Amino acid sequence: MLSRNRMLIRSLLSSSFPCTRNFLGTTPPPRKFLETGDTLRQTRIFTNEDVTEYSKASLDSNPLHFDSEFARNAGFEDRLVHGMLVASLFPRIIASHCPGAIYVSQSLHYKSPVYLGDAVVGEVQVTNIRENKSRYIVKFLTKCFKNDKLLVIDGEAVAILPTLAAEKVNVVD
Q1: Range of the domain at 159
Q2: Is the pTM here over 0.85, yes or no?
Q3: Residue 122 resides in a domain
Q4: pLDDT per residue over 63-76, tens digit each?
Q5: How far apart, in whole angstroms, are the C-alpha atoms of residue 74 and residue 23?
Q6: Domain MaoC-like spans what residues (predicted)?
Q7: What is the pLDDT of residue 8?
């Protein structure tokens, strides 16, 4: 099934893009097309300003995000980054690689807190691609790690993509 999908995708795409001539004498890098198993990642360190701006937009002013003493009394090391702010990495990753993506759904499971200053890596992995009316319905496994190893969020997302061509690709296979 996987090789059949790849052949279909390559067939559709090879007939869709006209050949272009490169006048600079260099060969442009080949475009990457998303395939099942591809993983896209981005890293972010959340700041006090990020938490403050998110709080203003979401109207979530829980003291766990603003008062270190309150957070420590609740059993945390320090102030927390909003879980939904951390999860916002997923649509950001998808949209930055696949312009025009329509985010359809997201499930989230919070595993561990994220604190201000933690380096968080968001990761989306393509698990299923289905063509529907000249668009693609793509299912992703979604995960965030802090300090490169501790799982803090996992879940699944579904997005509708206008094409499987990916931009700004730093795909990790």
Answers
A1: 33-46+82-166
A2: no
A3: yes
A4: 999 999 999 999 99
A5: 63
A6: 41-133
A7: 42
Q: Is residue 21 a part of any domain in this protein? A: no
Sheet holding 102-110, edge to edge: 39-45, 119-132, 135-146, 150-161, 102-110
The partner residues of 130 in beta bridges, in order of sequence, read 137
Residues in the chain: 173
Residue 106: strand pairing partners? 157
Residues near 154 by Cβ (< 8 Å), separated by ≥ 6? 108, 109, 111, 141, 142, 143, 144
Q: Which two tokens stand for residue 102?
A: 């329509």
pLDDT tens digits, one per residue of 146-171: 987 899 999 999 999 999 888 654 54
Number of structural domains in the chain: 1
For the record, the structure tokens of 45 come out as: 């360190």
Nearest C-alpha neighbor of 13 from the set 32, 40, 26, 29: 32
